């Protein structure tokens, strides 16, 4: 199995690149994030590799950092998420975006990725939510596990109301949670919404 390639990047296309290692050109599929991080051809680069062996082909998938490769492995373990869809998700969302989307049950954010519809987004949430806290959430670090939002709670209702006002769940969730923690058992939907709007409007 190939763990990484170190060679000249001689070509970068939409969704893939070609790396020349000692005269052998390797075609490597990659997310737009990894491709954007590569130097301009022809320059030397080191790319982490995930090798997928099929009956009819040996496919190489490249990553600029280990966090992205770990997420690729996790995502492709979900039924219906193939390598192409996983790379699409990793092109649309960073590792920290994925952690936030999974831990706040933000289906809409997952659906920003090409090939991810409502049903597949729901499956990803169901299968990976409990694993998100153990995954890399940013370059060089791991995220802290976040509790899922209980359906029908003040927090869930506040997030739904804020989403209706145009705020992304990913930015609203930490604000609502902080206000809920500060208010304690005295928190009401009206006060949480009012204070959240004040914070988000800054």
List the helices and strands and how they pair.
Blueprint: E1 4-13, E2 16-21, E3 24-30, H1 32-37, E4 43-53, E5 58-63, H2 66-75, H3 83-92, H4 95-103, H5 107-110, H6 118-128, E6 136-138, E7 141-142, H7 154-164, H8 169-183, H9 189-200
Helix pairs in contact: 2-3, 7-8, 7-9, 8-9
Care to describe what's here?
The protein is an alpha+beta fold. It is 44% helix and 22% strand. Helix 2 packs across helix 3. The longest helix is centred in the C-terminal third of the chain and has 15 residues, at 169-183. The radius of gyration is 20 Å and the shape is elongated. It starts with a strand and ends with a helix. Residues 138-152 have low confidence and may be disordered.
Outline of this structure?
It is built from nine helices and seven strands, in the order βββαββαααααββααα. It is an alpha+beta fold and 202 residues long.
Write a concise keyword list for the protein shown above.
two-stranded antiparallel ribbon, alpha+beta, five-stranded mixed barrel, single chain, 9 helices, 44% helix, 202 residues
Bulk shape: elongated
Assign a percent range to the helix content. 40-55%
Q: Please state the structural category.
A: alpha+beta
Order of helices and strands: EEEHEEHHHHHEEHHH
What is the spatial order of strands in the main beta sheet? Answer: 1-2-3-5-4
Biggest sheet overview: 5 strands, mixed, barrel
Distance between the termini: 51 Å
Radius of gyration: 20 Å
List the uncertain runs. Answer: 138-152
Helix segment tally: 9
Mean pLDDT: 83
Strand content: 15-25%
| Count of extended strands | 7
């Amino acid at each position: 199995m190939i763990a990484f390639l170190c060679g000249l990047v001689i070509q970068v296309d939409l969704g893939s690149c070609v790396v020349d290692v000692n005269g052998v050109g390797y075609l490597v599929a990659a997310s737009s994030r990894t491709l954007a991080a590569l130097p301009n051809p022809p320059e030397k680069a080191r790319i982490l590799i995930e090798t997928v062996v099929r009956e009819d082909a040996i496919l190489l998938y490249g990553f600029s950092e280990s966090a992205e490769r770990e997420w690729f492995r996790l995502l492709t373990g979900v039924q219906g998420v193939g390598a192409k869809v996983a790379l699409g998700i990793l092109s649309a969302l960073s590792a920290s975006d994925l952690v936030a989307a999974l831990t706040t049950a933000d289906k809409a954010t997952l659906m920003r990725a090409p090939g991810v519809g409502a049903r597949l987004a729901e499956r990803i949430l169901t299968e990976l939510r409990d694993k998100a806290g153990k995954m890399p959430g940013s370059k060089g670090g791991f995220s802290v596990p976040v509790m899922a939002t209980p359906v029908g709670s003040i927090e869930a209702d506040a997030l739904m109301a804020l989403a209706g006002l145009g705020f992304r769940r990913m930015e609203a969730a930490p604000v609502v949670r902080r206000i809920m923690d500060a208010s304690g058992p005295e928190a009401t939907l009206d006060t949480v919404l009012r204070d959240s709007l004040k914070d988000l409007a800054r």
